[in-house]
Amino acid sequence: APSIRLLYEVVAKYGAFLTFHMEADSDSLGEMERLLASDRKGRILWNHCGVNSTADQVRPLLARHANLFCELSFRHPPALEDRMARRQPTRKIFDSRGPDADWLKLIEDFPDRFLIGTDVESPFGYGEAIRVVRNGLLPYLLPSTTRKVAYENAQRLFGRK
To answer: N or C, fewer C-beta in 10 Å, the chain?
Structure first.
């Protein structure tokens, strides 16, 4: 949409970023790719890394667009309820037993582009979400990747030390 293109131009001019909530359907991915390619100084933080995307769908996007970042909330329990994960198994990137092998490889291949998130609906689920991240994802990553995904990438993207 023209309004999104204009907003993206402002983002690129000031070194900021847009966040997108969108699924990985082909039309939406094509539009996002055109936006990313229109100005490499603009950045997009893709919330939930697409909710329903697979590692195979995300890999070429990250390879083509260094200005795309993936946030991993709502792709792990407790925000991702078991019944939802059973209905749409591509939604789950990791759980308390560990990460999906394809996603683990993707994160290690692009360690500068992923950020953890929790996205829980109540304060009661926050502690459990943090436990799942600490036990189900971070120990499986290389130490340098762990630091990047846990906080360094967010510091860089948000301009914080």
So the answer is: C
Q: Which helix (DSSP H) or strand (DSSP E) does residue 20 occupy?
A: strand 17-20
Choose among 99, 101, 100: nearest CA to 136. Answer: 99
User: What pLDDT, in 10s, does the model give residues 122-154?
Assistant: 677 778 788 888 888 999 999 999 999 999 999
DSSP 75: S
Give the neighbor-by-neighbor strand order of the sheet with 114-115.
Answer: 17-20, 43-46, 68-71, 114-115
Q: Whole-structure pTM over 0.85, yes or no?
A: yes
Closest C-alpha among 160, 161, 145, 159 to residue 113: 145
